[in-house]
Amino acid sequence: MLERVGFEQLTTNLICEAAGLSPPALYRYFPNKYAVLKELGDRLMRAQDDEVIAWADAGGLTGDTFEERLAKTLAIHERMVAIQREFPGGSAIGRALRAVPVLQDLRFRSRDMVAGHFFRHMREIYPNTDPRRLEVVTRMTVELSYAAMEMVVEEPDRDADIINREVCLLFAHYFASFS
Length: 179
What we know:
Shape: elongated
CATH topology: Tetracycline Repressor, domain 2
Radius of gyration: 18 Å
Structural class: mainly alpha
Number of domains: 1
Strand content: under 5%
Mean pLDDT: 92
CATH architecture: Orthogonal Bundle
Oligomer: single chain
Distance between the termini: 48 Å
Number of helices: 9
Order of helices and strands: HHHHHHHHH
Helix content: over 70%
Largest sheet: none
CATH class: Mainly Alpha
């Protein structure tokens, strides 16, 4: 529904109608449309965060060769895109997380949590790299991943494979310079 009517036109009454609920039933759990979107955004971000953290914990940030690291990064990028595409309203929820000020904090918290997790792994992989630099790099990595994913999800018929590969090549070359 969010994709069909857009955020500005979305109302709690439309949500109630689509869900088959009365407004009092909806208001019992959600005070407004922002709370509904926050819950949906939280679920989407949690699904992606859980997947990427499991990937990192399983050695996703490591590899014996450039090609192996590239393949691992490409695989997780493709999985993140799939999660967003498969999540009901995923594209519209992603836009709302960026555009609606009260929802941006949810995305920032997710980014910082994933970046913090990456940071712990990267400190082990690159112990001689300045920790402050690694903190910034991990946040940038997550943000650039979001941007590439948005491009692919928003325009699936326009260079999706190339965009995923290019952003993963960018990461692989960049992190190779840390060694």
